[in-house]
Amino acid sequence: MFARAISLVLAAASASAQAPSAPQPAPSPEQSRAKAVEDLVTANRILADLGVLDGYGHVSIRVPGDPKHFLLARSVAPELVTAADIVEHDLEGNASAPPGTQLFGERFIHAAVYAARPDVQAVVHAHPPTATGFAVAGIPLDRAVLAEVLTTLGSIPIAEYATPSTSELPEAVRKYIKAHDGMLLANHGALTVGADLYSAYYKMETVEHFAKISLVARLLGRENLISRQEVIRLQGLRDTYGIKAPAPICAEDAVVEDAATCQIVQAPSSPGSRLVPDVSPKAAAETDGEIRLTYRELSALIEDAIKNLR
Question: Which pTM does this prediction carry?
Answer without folding.
Answer: 0.82
